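[Automated response] Your request has been received and processed.

Submitted sequence:
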Amino acid sequence: MAVVKVIELIAESTESWEAAVQDGVTEAAKTVKNLQTVYVKDLQAVLEGSKIVKYRANVKISFIVNE
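Generated structure:
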């Protein structure tokens, strides 16, 4: 039986929400093995005046825990 654990992250990019999600997955993969899925819980943007300067994604990433 596999045990799955979920971590929650807020990732950020200056390019897009997709890039923010990918950056979160890439960073998680540096310290966590067996990544399985990413669930995008929430999206945010940081503004300067009327311009979006940062895209943020609140994500949940699941991974299998080694037995």
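Summary generated for your ticket: The chain is about 20% helix and 60% strand. The radius of gyration is 14 Å.
If you did not submit this request, please reply to this message.
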